Amino acid sequence: MLIGNGTLAQPVAGSSEGLSALTMRVSDQTVRAPNSFADLAEKVEPAVIAVISKDAAGDKSSSDQPFQFDTPDRADPGQTDPGQDPGQDELPLPHMPDLGKAPKRTQSITLGSGFFISADGYAVTNSHVVENGDTAEVRTNDGKTYSAKVVGRDALSDLALIKVDGRKDFSYVKFAAQSPRIGEWVLTVGNPFGLGGTVTAGIVSARDRNIDVGAGEDFIQIDAPINNGDSGGPSFNVDGDVIGVNSMIFSPSGGSVGVAFAIPAETVKLVIPQLKDKGTVTRGWIGAEVQSITPEIADSLGKNDLRGAIVANVKRNGPAAQSGLTSGDVITSVSGQAIKNANELTKKIHAAAPGSSVQLGMLRGGKESSVNVTLGRLPDQSTVGAAQK
Fold first, then answer.
1. 0.85 exceeded by the pTM?
2. CATH superfamily, region 44-76+105-164
3. Which CATH class is domain 284-383?
């Protein structure tokens, strides 16, 4: 065996044993691709469900944006997908009679996915899948249909908790204890295009992906194919634990291009207990619009290594305004913990309880300072823009 200087390394006592031990150490560090996902799929599929939500609606919503942000996966009666085989099975829709002078109404159906997290019927899905009603229809992997009530939903994280009553023996899955590493295998199960239980596989492409939506959460990016109808479905690691809830895709065409985003399990584990206990999520709020410090902003302030969030605007009579924060202040820390950007600031503020006090370290006029802010409660998320923190 050659070492760095080109000379032969001296064998240790019992050279064959030493070589064997070295080989074993190297092989222990080798990551091997699974021979098959079949056992894993068989293990987790029974816990994954199709979620169907119905509501009276007008025109079908659409978006020309490459990111499909919280866009309901709707099936619109009366319209046929140009690429659909006329003989393909469709979800049954109730007959809507023509009432003459009365305006004609149609029923919009939102197709999504979800998964049981307990044997007694609690299941997780996306908020946008069940945003238009207090009940939903659930179809399990064995083809049975159940009615589910919406226990709570949180538009900001795009998570919802639903409950199927009457059984206490549902198959369920648990959340992963640790965050996945980039490059790890991931298996997704969902209900794409309403076809029913479908398994796809890929890897974790990136972590902590900030795409400037929602509550400032960082998403897990995966390359497993995700399509309309997969919203709310789980992404699993090779142990069969949920690492994230599939929420959105990047798609110039509307179909999968191998760039999908999942809400991390850590976020789900914070939101779901609150939805179960009180049907809503309580977050801290300072009432300010902020943006991350860019190299250009840092240079303009004469601080090349500056990191944090600059205050763009404060809400009149909000917590920030009452504490004396003004536009142009640069927030660099929260309660003594340094922040890198606006996203980190948002997460720390939202994680704090309304009514609690936080100390914000900041830079004002080139001088370091600090201010104590008594947090308010984040208002109704439907009326608060993504930049409102």
1. no
2. Trypsin-like serine proteases (2.40.10.10)
3. mainly beta
